[in-house]
Amino acid sequence: MLQQSRLPHALLISGIDGLGKMAFAERLVASLLCIQPDAQFNACGHCHSCQLLAAQSHPDHLLVAPEDRGKQIKVDQIRSLKQSQTLMPKVSAAKTVLISEADQMNISAFNSLLKLLEEPQPDSTLILLSNNPQQLPITIKSRCQNVVIPIPDTDQAMAYLRAQDPAMQDKHWQALLKLTQGAPLAALSLGDAGLEQSRQVTADIALLMQGQGNPVQMAADWQQYDLKSVLLQIQSMMQSKIGQLLMTVDNCSVSLLRPYWSIVDCITDTLKLISSQNNPNKILLIEDFMVTVMQHAEQIHKLQGTHR
Ligand SMILES: [Zn+2]
After folding, report:
1. How far is the CA of 23 from the centre of ligand 1 (A)?
2. Strand ranges for 219-305 from DSSP E
3. pTM (2 decimals)?
4. What is the pLDDT of residues 206-240, one digit of tens each?
5. Among candidates 300, 292, 235, 221, which has minimal Cα distance to 267?
6. Confidence band (pLDDT; 50, 70, 90) for 68?
7. Which domains are present in the chain?
8. How far is the CA of 62 from the centre of ligand 1 (A)?
């Protein structure tokens, strides 16, 4: 789009965590601001603009993000962004704004941003990043060109990961990709800690499925983990169990499908809750989830007893 002079004034780059949305956006920003880009519009890396950008002190670029992890972007942040948009570019020929976690705003911040999108500045490009674009108001989304970053296929992701750490075994990368919905950068950043998490969660779920284990203790242990990746791991475990049951068509297997599906539904609901803006109490969410798993596990044992 840049090469064909078709780049819109506002872009929404979306996709799950760990696909390189930020790296992509930063590269685009560097291209837009670079004083002497090459014929393909790649930033040169050494002009005044590229140096300022590398030092995070480019006067024509603004990064807007929640001030604290898990918090929202404040309306004041959007207001000061609007103020800066009235200024002329100082170093480059254009201005850029990068809004990270753009879905993490309250209504007044969204409204303020909407006004900005409705009155585009000719020399300015706004780039919104979001892991949860469904949480963005339609009025915002419809004023941006949407760019969805796809999840790479497994071969592509594995080739990338092998190149990052040739010492890591393939089965470990595969386990990590399961925790991250196939996002290679997220798998890379989980690394050994992710493998330890995977082992612990596998052991804990096995206990819960046998009606053993203490949900309160386990929930406290799981607090150190990224809850989303834990739930994705359990989802993948349950789906492979359902796959096995579907392969065997006796009455017992068919009746067992229901409680396993109920666990999958519960995982989906919990995932929705943790990505909502309401800052839920995560430890209570995990405990509730574990109790539900134990209830369905009990049903599974009863059904297995009936059919034995
Ligand atoms: Zn440059």
Report:
1. 17
2. none
3. 0.80
4. 999 988 888 888 998 998 898 888 999 999 899 98
5. 235
6. confident
7. 10-148 (3.40.50.300), 154-307 (no CATH)
8. 17
For CA atoms 92, 93, 95, 96, the dihedral sign is negative
Q: Give the distance (Å) from ligand 1 centre to CA of residue 6.
A: 21
Of 307 and 13, the structure prediction assigns the larger pLDDT to 13
Neighbour-count burial for 200-220, b at 16+ CB within 10 Å, e otherwise: bbeebbeebbeeebebeebbe
Q: How many CB atoms lie within 10 A of CB 143?
A: 20
Can you spell out the DSSP letters for 287-308?
HHHHHHHHHHHHHHHHHHHHH-
Question: Ligand 1 centre from 28 Cα, in Å?
Answer: 12
Count of residues in the chain: 308
User: Whole-number mean pLDDT of the chain?
Assistant: 91
Q: How far is the CA of 31 from the centre of ligand 1 (A)?
A: 7
Distance between CA atoms of 308 and 303, rounded to whole angstroms? 9
Q: Is the pLDDT of residue 275 over 80?
A: no
Q: 179: number of CA atoms within 13 Å, CB side?
A: 28
Residue bearing tokens 């065997």: 248
Which residues make up the environment of ion ligand 1, defined by Cβ < 5 Å?
A: 34, 43-44, 47, 50
Q: Which of 196, 17, 215 is nearest to 103 (CA)?
A: 17
CA of 35 to the centre of ligand 1 (A): 5
pLDDT, tens digit (0-9, with 9 covering 90-100), for 87-136: 899 999 999 999 999 999 989 999 999 999 998 888 899 999 999 899 89
Q: How far is ligand 1, taken at its centre, from the CA of residue 32, in Å? A: 9
pLDDT tens string 141-166: 999 999 999 999 999 999 999 999 99
Amino acid at 272: K
